[in-house]
Structures are given as C-alpha cells and as structure tokens.
Amino acid sequence: MNLRWLELFCLIVEEGSISAAGRSAYISQPSVTKYMHYLEEHYGAMLLHRGSGKVTPTEAGRVLYPHAKAIIQDYQNSLESVAFTDHKTKRDLKVGASFTLGEYMMPTVVAAFNQIHDDSDVQVTIQNTRTILKMLEDQQIDLAFVEGEIHTDSLRKQAMIEDKVILVVNPTHPWSKRTHILPQELREERYIAREPKSSTRIIVEKHLMVKQAGLKLEPHLQLNTTQAVKSAVQSGLGYGFLSHYAVQQEIQNGLLVHVPFANLSITRPFWSVVKPLRFEKPIVETFQQLTQQLLKELEPT
C-alpha cells in the first residue's frame, strides 16, 4: 500500500470533496479517484460515499480515518526523529499554552531555551485550555502547558508546580488595607471575571461553590484574557482572581494588592501534557524539563 493513498483519503474526508483534495495535494481529480479505488481494493471495503456535491466517509471510512491520520503522523515524526539524530535539520517544536502560562512564563522559557539550543525553532500558540488540548489531540502542536482539569485518557499529563489563584484589587479599593476578608464579602463588590470557559474562572467558582456552602458570584464584567482582567482591576472597576505568577510584578510595584481570605485557599496544578506517540521528538522532553526548572525559579515568594 502507498502512504500517499492514505494522505489523499484524509484530505478527502477533511475537505469533503475529491476535487478539493486534489487541489490541496496538486494532483488531478482523476488521479485522486484512481488512488481511492486502489485504497478501497486494498481494504476490501467501500470507504467513501460519492454523493452529489459532497463526499463523506462510509462507516468503514470513519473507522479508518483516525488510524490513517496516526500512520501519517507517525511517519512524519519518524522522519523528524532521524533527521534530528543526524543533525540534518533545524529542530522545530510547536508548543501550546493556556493564557496564564503562555503570556507570563513562556517568553522567559523560550528565551532561555534558545540560548542553549540555538539550532531550534520554537513556536508558541496561546489559547484557553480546552482549545490547546484539542490542538494537542489533533497533533497540531507537540507539547502543551495548561492549568485546569484534563479528562481525556489519550493524553499524558505531568504536574509541574502548584499555582495559587489570588484575589487582587486596586490600591485605592476599601479591601486594600485589610489583613483578610471573608468569602461572603465578595457579593458586596464588583467581580471582574474571565470568560465562562476559562480554567481560572472555573477553579475559582468551583472552590467557592464546594468549600463555601454554595457561594455563587455574578460577574460585573467578563473579559477573555488575563491581561484584560488585570487592567480592569488596576483601573478600579472591581476585584479579580488571577494566578500569583501573573500579578507578581504589579504587586511588587504597588499597582495591585493581594487580599487574603480568612479561611480559603485556591490552588491548582500547572500541567505539561503530551500525546504519546511512537516516535517522539527528543526536543519535547528537553523543553519540558527546562520549563519545570524555570517555573520553580520564578515562583513568587
């Protein structure tokens, strides 16, 4: 069997069209059709429904698709692994990170990594945890750094360090002079929150619901990045919950104030996550180890 047949089959499933797959692969439509006949003969099953206007996989095609993707990816990974070993190519690494890790820690890690491995090309994508894990599942990235819950068994996770999510306010806020507050007092002031799917927001509201007898907060304002929440809190629009990694500079410079709770601590692990592959890039483990080392060094006191 020719590996090219599997690549074309995957393109057809993804594009929904034989002609579109041919254009993507720079192959004529009749050639693509011929190769699909070869592939169906090889498996002894019809793999595609050729309807009017759109091509869809049969039940056998749906079963084959994830295996075909894995075979193609394993082949690509094997080429890269051999090339790395023989120093024939620049080592590239695609990293995904959730907002807190991506915005506040990845620049330091990448800079340190590039000083040690100047033959490497690291690309970082920053999105929410759910999107990053989906990209890892689809093998669009090699390695992920996220916070929050990870439910899939197809990914391998490793806890790197414990993060504290803390309550912060503007220095002029009435709470800024307090030694602590009670969680119930949160209802009295304006809550600046991340978007509902944010891992930071989910962990905060889960702690309040479970550990504070069902305390539920209604956001005054919802924002989709950590930086936006920081800016809103600094402007005096309300209070927010953020990773202590994300606000340590502002706290040190007097731009934000950490307000402790009397009886509540919100913590979560930072995870490094990979999808187990037959051929794994050696650079992945190297980057993981450096990230964990630097996270410990950067940990706020």
Structure description:
The protein is α/β, with parallel strands linked by helices and 301 residues long. It has 3 domains: 3-84, Arc Repressor Mutant, subunit A, CATH 1.10.10; 90-161 and 269-298, Periplasmic binding protein-like II (D-Maltodextrin-Binding Protein, domain 2, 3-Layer(aba) Sandwich), CATH 3.40.190.10; 163-267, D-Maltodextrin-Binding Protein, domain 2 (3-Layer(aba) Sandwich), CATH 3.40.190. The chain has 11 helices and 11 strands. The strands form 2 sheets. Strands 3, 4, 5, 6, 7, 8, 9, 10 and 11 form a 9-stranded mixed β-sheet that branches. A two-stranded antiparallel sheet has the order 1-2. Strand 1 and strand 2 (55-57) form a beta hairpin. Helix 6 (106-116) packs across helix 11. 29% of the residues are buried.
Main beta sheet: 9 strands, mixed
Specify the overall morphology: elongated
Our count of domains comes out at: 3
Within the CATH hierarchy, at the fold level, what is the topology of the largest domain? D-Maltodextrin-Binding Protein, domain 2
- Indicate the structural class: alpha/beta
> Which consecutive residue ranges, at least 5 long each, have pLDDT under 50?
none
Keywords: DNA-binding, Transcription, Transcription regulation
Protein name: LysR family transcriptional regulator
Family: Belongs to the LysR transcriptional regulatory family.
Pfam family, one: LysR_substrate
